[in-house]
Every structure is written in structure tokens, then in C-alpha cells.
């Protein structure tokens, strides 16, 4: 796929553009058609230039906004509508209650402006798909997230690379100051679209909890080369199976951390937000012999989509219900009931898929977080009283990590602390001898 990172459409000269299909000379009728086509393209390009200039102006304004103001922003994301499409922020008109988006979200809006203008204006790109063109135009110059995650004194937050037959992924690993070689639990944290490990660590504050309770945290990073908006490809059939694609890479990273730090192989967990939450659900379905429990925040069940078209339907709550997992993995779920990005019905489907164990007792608790977000917490426990499923429905909440810090993107600081609840749930579970490979 060809990219055009250096094309300047604000200063593009139509007079220098050769229009395919018309010769240097011809009949008056052909010349008339050529002139009419050039006029249409000039008008379309003019509209595009104006829209692009406006998008860049909004990006520049967001870029120069103080970090504390940008950090409070919470927006939802719209799914791609074509195989080469991008995950984008909705237009301001679609979400009037939201604050102006930050730099990374404006970058997505710029990409959308390019794609929409080209598609509506009919500008030919020499056979190059519009999605690929937009990817080259975006160039990856605007990075998501805020400041790097804070590292407590004596702790480490280090870069690693994992490579296997399925490919290669970078990841960061947090090592608490209390680590002295003992067999610690390992938590795999899977970021959402447009995020990265530092941003996700800052928003979830999981490193702070790891330092407090002494466990290891690994943050795999999805590169733009794998998905333009850095989403985990949860909707791709090839990334929903064991021993291949992204599940194999993520499981490999978890095993690499266990091996490097002599961690406890019976206490390995995974959690994620949005596309990362969907990836965590996939890990529960494909690697129940590795993960002792998973957390799915604002995500989707494994198999809820098999391509981009079905992903769009699933995110709207119109997808088919996937079947139950063959082997139960304890699961904790958080989902806002006004989530406009991933319909709340998907939280129900994640819970239904995880219910491979029958005869569970159910308790329901209703409350309100200190920040004022009401919730309903449903717990399903086995005969020993151990919770196998925990489902938090966040009333009035959207597509954001509950109880997170505004230092990271896609967080709802007012909500109940999802990070602390997940850690509590995880540390109550360990794989038994019968589950070991």
C-alpha cells in the first residue's frame, strides 16, 4: 500500500494535475468534458481544503490547550465502515454534551475529513483505497495520551519486545519495588483504540495498585502497522483463535513475563478497555489454561464479530449472541449503560459467554460511588462462596474506564474504582493443578 505523508492539500495546484483518460488534444466535445471534470474536481478540492483547514485549526487549538483541561475529556469512538477504515471520534453535533476533544481525537477527525471529502468529492487517487490514503496522511505524528505514567521510587517500568511466529509486539512491564525474586501474580493490561501503554497505565493507575499490593503488570502495545487507530483486531477471525494472530502474541507476552521474573504461572490475569476488553474476552476463550481470570471493561464477547461489517453491527448491539466458552474462566465486567460506542448489550453477552458454570448463586447490590455514579453490581458465586462472575452496570456512564485518572485518556474519574475492583477479584482466583497445561 502506498502512503502520501508529505502531500500538502492546502497548497495543491490543480493546474499541474494530469487527468487520466484525456489526451493532450481531441474533439471539442472531449475538451468540454475535460474542462467540466476539472471544474468539478476543483470545486470538490476547494471544499476539502476548507474542511481540512478547519480540522487542523481545531487540532492546533486542542494541542495548545493546557494538559489539565485536555485530560478531563471523555469521548466515544465510531467503528470503521470499510476494511481500510479508521476508528474515529464522532462529530461534535453527535455528542453535544462532550467537551472539545484532545489532540489525538482531532487527528482522527482530520483523517475522517480527508476520507469523507475525497469520497464525496469524487477525487481520484489512482486506484489507491481511501483508507490507505488516510493512513498515510495521518502519518502517526499525533500520539494519544498525556504524560508518562509515574514510577514509584525503587520500582521499574521498562520496555520489552516479544517476537514469535505470529509476529512481534512491544510491551512495557511494571516491576514493583517490593519484588525480590518471589513468585508474583502477573496482570496483562490491554489498552483501547488510540491508546498506548503509558497512557493506559496513567489512566487506570494500575501501576500504583501493583506497587501497593506487589504484583507485576505488562502492557502490550498495538502498533499502527497492525491497526491504524492502534485497536486490537478483536473482530478479525484470524485474531480469535488459539496459537495464531494476536491471541498467541498476547499469551506469549504473559508467558515471557512469567519466565523472566519467575512469576506465579497459576496467577496470570488479563484486563482491557474497549477493543482491549474484547481482546481479554478472546484470551479467556482461547487460553483458559493460562489465564486464571479476566476483566472486560466496555468490551465485547469473543466471536461477536468476524469482520468489519459484523463488528459495526455488534458495537451497535445488533450482533448475534456468541456461544458460551467451553471452559469457564472467572470474569469481571464493567459497562456503562449509556455507552454510545459499544452498546451495553455487549456487557450482557460477555457475562453470558463466561457462564460455563451452572448452578451459581446470585446476589445484587446497588450503590453510588463517592463521585456520584450509581451502579448495579451482580455477583454469581459457586457452592464454596467464591465469585465466578462479577458484573458492574454503571448508570449514566459512557465509554471510559470507571474510576480512572484524568492523567490518561478515556477515563471516568467519578465512577467506582474499576482497577481496584478488578485486582481484588483477580487475586481471589488461581488456576488449580487440573488446569495446568
Main β-sheet description? 10 strands, mixed
Helix content: 25-40%
Provide the spatial order of strands within the biggest beta sheet.
1-2-4-3-5-6-7-10-9-8
CATH level-two architecture of the largest domain: 3-Layer(aba) Sandwich
Low-confidence stretches: 1-25, 62-76, 83-146, 433-437
- The count of helical stretches stands at 11
Report the end-to-end length measured between terminal Cα atoms: 41 Å
- Average pLDDT for all residues: 78
Q: Look at the structure and name the CATH superfamily of the largest domain.
A: Alpha/Beta hydrolase fold, catalytic domain
Percentage of residues in strands: 15-25%
Structural class: alpha/beta
> Radius of gyration, Cα only, in angstroms?
24 Å
Regarding CATH, which class of the largest domain? Alpha Beta
Number of domains: 2
CATH topology of the largest domain: Rossmann fold
Order of helices and strands: HHHHEEEHHEHEHEHEHEEEEEH
Approximate shape:
globular
Description of the structure:
The protein is α/β, with parallel strands linked by helices. The protein has two domains: 9-138, no CATH class; 156-435, 3-Layer(aba) Sandwich (Rossmann fold). Helices cover 32% and strands 17% of the residues. It has eleven helices and twelve strands. The protein has helices at residues 28-63, 67-70, 103-121, 130-138, 197-204, 206-213, 245-261, 275-286, 308-315, 345-354, 418-426; strands at residues 156-164, 167-175, 186-190, 216-220, 268-273, 293-297, 331-336, 361-368, 374-381, 387-394, 401-402, 411-412. The strands form two sheets. The protein has a ten-stranded mixed sheet with strand order 1-2-4-3-5-6-7-10-9-8, sandwiched between helices. The protein has a two-stranded parallel ribbon with strand order 11-12. The radius of gyration is 24 Å and the shape is globular. The two termini are 41 Å apart. Mean pLDDT is 78; it is low at 1-25, 62-76, 83-146 and 433-437.
